[in-house]
Design a protein that fits this description.
The complex is a heterodimer of chains A (about 170) and B (about 140). With about 170 residues, chain A is mostly helical. Chain A has seven helices and no strands. The two termini of chain A are about 25 Å apart. Chain B is mostly helical and about 140 residues long.
Amino acid sequence: MTAVQLAFLVGLTGVLAAVGWFALTVMRAAARGDGGTHLSVSLLRRLGRSPQERAELNRWAFYLHRVTGMAILGFLCLHILDVGTYAISRGTYDDLHELYGSAPMRVFESGLLVAILFHTFNGLRILAIDLGDLGQLTARRLLVPVVAVTLVLGVAGTVVIMAPVFS
Amino acid sequence: MTSLGQPVSPRHRPGVRWEAPRPAGSRRARAATYVTVRVTGLILAVLVLGHFAMTHVVTDVAEADAGFIAERWGSALWIAWDGTMLTAALVHGAAGAWIAIEDYTADRARRRRRLGLLAAATALLLATGWATLAVAILG
């Protein structure tokens, strides 16, 4: 392993740790300020009620939007630096880029794709909520296509990204 | 029990300290952030998904090496694509992180420190990204 590869992996570990810490911050603030959105028996009971009353899911979408947003931003910072090595020397870039083709990185890339897909389509949902002045119920119902598109494109993309590992 | 199955807020629970969130910044500044996040987000919905498809689906990531970049940056369209994406993504991400920091940092001095750090890091990354593009194109 070369020095730039090691530096990249250290950076990636840092990004993942920061995302974990941020997710914890979001959940802790949620439990304190929003009235107990932490996983509990009463929350599960709320989520299990009839569809009209599942507006609580809007809130979970909000938390997921924040955490995926911070995860994507974390990777973006690292990505700007790793592409920056291209300006220094193409050899250094190719050296570093070899990591992207490795199996563990492909798993990470698949996860990144799912995060990007959710953040994108949930973002479009937020735009629709604002522009169309939609209520809580319609907003919650729009989560169905958001999650469906995320899952379908996410699984399809994961198959494409992971395929070279198994062939 | 409230109508939409909303939980009882801890502010009504005895013994739990709760502070009302104070929106930071002027009304105009917040409106500007709001519009910026949405406009850049809409741009990124196209550019980032296109970028990901280009580097992971159309081309396998293992083949997206230095030669692939050199080929792409030989075209003005891709330089414009990447330059716009870089700027929009950093502005969008920084604005989002700005809001998150304001939400989760109650201490004023610490908040100012974190926001300053965010602004500095964003400027540095923006400069790095643009310098990479400039060196790659001119060099």
